[in-house]
Structure formats: structure tokens, C-alpha cells
Amino acid sequence: MLKKISFGFSATLVSSLLVPALVLAxxxxxxxxxxxxxxxxxSEAVTVTATVPASGVTFSGFAPPASVVTIKxxxxxxxxxxxxxxxxxxxxxxxxxxxxxxxxxxxDNAGLSTPEISISNISVIAHTNTPVTSIPLPPTITVSADAxxxxxxxxxxxxxxxxxYINLFLNSTKIYTSLISASGTxxxxxxxxxxxxxxxxxxxxxxxxxxxxxxxxxxxxxxVECDLSDPACAPPTQTPKExxxxxxxxxxxxxxxxxxxxxxxxxxxxxxxxxxxxxLLLFFFWKRRRKKKTEVxxxxxxxxxxxxxxxxxxxxxxxxxxEAEKEIE
Length: 329
Hints:
This protein is α+β, with helices and mostly antiparallel strands and 329 residues long. It has four domains: 1-52, no CATH class; 56-136, Immunoglobulin-like, CATH 2.60.40.10; 142-224, Immunoglobulins (Immunoglobulin-like); 265-328, no CATH class. Helices cover 21% and strands 36% of the residues. The protein contains three helices and 21 strands. The chain has helices at 240-245, 261-309, 314-328, and strands at residues 2-4, 25-27, 33-34, 39-40, 56-62, 68-73, 76-82, 88-94, 98-107, 117-124, 129-136, 142-143, 147-149, 154-159, 165-170, 173-179, 185-190, 197-206, 219-224, 250-254, 257-260. The strands form seven sheets. It has a five-stranded mixed beta sheet with strand order 13-19-18-15-16, with no helix packed on it. It has a four-stranded antiparallel beta sheet with strand order 7-6-9-10, with no helix packed on it. Strands 8-5-11 form a three-stranded mixed beta sheet, with no helix packed on it. The chain is elongated, with a radius of gyration of 47 Å. The termini are far apart.
């Protein structure tokens, strides 16, 4: 016979635990009903066991299929998860009450990693799970070659969650958008979108009802005008003497004049030496002229003093001055 009973008990609760009201069903054996409410006479102690919910955060989102998602706090790994075939993941990490800052990234099954993205100011409440949902981790990316010849094809590829769109940027310009395959891969090949010199590429992810992801890692590659290993691009054949004279790099002065480093050094040295000689000669002549002028002035001074002492006429003195000026010139 099952009867509803009422009972009382006391318990010590930790961290303000709220326990739902309990309704117990017991069997009276043998039946022993006590009027007037026909309740069972129970003398055994009743033990109530309650589970306290943990404080934590549940992260969920999208990444390449079969990739490992790593969650970190203060540079320490606090949780990992593996995405399913659709690129979905979910991981709950335990945290103390308060405000937390996390970072999260994924490593695909080819070993390529996404950049770490920040998930900041997550408020954790005691004995409550805080969900952080629809995290769009950026795609992974790699380049087929570090350097290519101008006109040669270069391939950019990587992984992302199926059902998402990949947006590929080359030198900050979007050049490609496509749906990621069911296996989570994407690829794009080009022989003309790049430029001579250094090129950089990155990708982002867009998904229905989810904001665009942060950029992927940046990959770079070089584009050169001509591949010297190609006979068609080899320089003209030179004699040993010409090769000796053209060691090092060439310097182009314009006007069709191109000199080797050795000849350029000789030319510049000659110009510098010649200029120095000219400067020294000018200084020598200036010094000599100044000395002569000083000597003439001294002689003139002595002559004037002598003329004055001898009471020579003014015309004679002026004549001496005129002769002195001619010598100075």
C-alpha cells in the first residue's frame, strides 16, 4: 500500500544550495495506519542526498572536422575537445565564480592551427553553467610554395567547418569566396592575382546566422620575374675575363650605362681622388697668394716709413703704393 507521508529533517547547506521540495512514496508493511489521517508510522531515519551543480562555462562552435579545439586561460590549457564530422564542438570547463578571460584555437588533422581568438569578460555565477555559443573559429591556411616565377600557378588551401563559406584575401583584396566542401577542405589556385615581390594571404569564415570569423594566420610567398634555373631565362654567356670583371652585382646609372661593382668602385675612387687633388691645389695657390700679399704689404710699410723719413714728395709715395698694388694682383 502506497501512502503520501510528511516528515521533517534538518541539513547544512553549502554555498546557498537550493534543493527542490521532495515527495516520498513509502510502503507500509505491515499496514499500520494511524487515524485520523491514515498516515504510516515510520520510525526509520531518512537520508537525503543532493548534487551541487558546478560553476563553469560551456563553449560551443565550429572548426574544421576532426580538429582538436584547445581552450586556455592565463596561458594554461583548461580544456580540449574534438570536432565531429560537421565541424561542431562543445566543451564545458569548470571555473570559479567571477569574471574570466579565455582564448581558444583549433588544430586541424593536417597539423595546421588557427590563430588564438579571445573570449573576454565571461561572468561565471556560482553553481551555474554559462554558455558561450556559436564560436566561429577562423579557417586554417597554407601555401603551396614559398616562391614562384611570374605566371606560375600558386595554390592556397586549408580547412574549415562544412556548410561555411571561405573568403580568401590576397594583398588585402578579396579574390575568392566559396562553400567549404563536405570534408571540410577548400583550395584556390591562381597564376595572375599576385604581384611581383612579396605577397600575403589570409582567409575568413562566414556561416549562416553567425558573424564573420576573425582572420586566419597570414601566409606569404615571393613572386620573381624569371626563374634562373630555366635555360630561357639564363643570362648571356660571358668570357672568363668578362665574368671576372662583372663579379658581384651590377649598378645601372641610367642612359643605358651599366657597370659592375668593381668598375663602379674604380670610377668613384678616381673621381674622389681627382676632386681631392683639385681642392689641395686650390688651397696651395690661395695660401701662396696670401703669403705674397703679406710680404708685399710689409715691404710697402717699410718703404713708406723710409720715404716719410726722407721727406720724399707725396707723388713718390703714391707711386710706391701703385707699384705695390700691381705686385699683389
